[in-house]
Design brief:
Shape: globular
Largest sheet: none
Number of strands: 0
Number of domains: 1
Number of helices: 5
Radius of gyration: 15 Å
Order of helices and strands: HHHHH
Helix content: over 70%
Distance between the termini: 24 Å
Low-confidence stretches: none
Length: 106
């Protein structure tokens, strides 16, 4: 479930002091309105593929940069970012495969 991954990333970022609220996460990490994450939770909805792609890209970008840092803590966080980026990419692919398979079966 993509929504679960998205909120796991939010909790990771929050635990590292990189965001403090869902509003900040929605705006700064998802490039969406401040109420985006809250709306997903309220409506029990999945994030868009575009949102997941943007999050995956940003996690990969910062993950790669953190790997080059001097402290083990930064490198460990970089590994987590890259792991979540890969999970996001996998979720995107799962949803795309499901969609084209449904179209072909129709």
């Amino acid at each position: 479930m993509s929504k679960t991954v998205l909120f796991e990333v939010f909790e990771l970022l929050k635990s590292q002091g990189l965001v403090s609220t869902e509003n900040e996460f929605s705006k700064d990490w998802l490039a969406r309105s401040e109420s985006y994450a809250r709306g997903l939770r309220f409506h029990d909805a999945e994030p868009s593929i575009a949102t997941m792609a943007l999050l995956a890209s940003k996690l990969q970008y910062y993950g790669e940069r953190l790997l080059g840092q001097h402290t083990e803590q930064h490198r460990a966080l970089g590994e987590k970012f890259l792991s979540y980026s890969q999970i996001c990419h996998s979720k995107i692919n799962e949803r795309c495969v499901d969609r084209w398979q449904r179209v072909m079966a129709a």
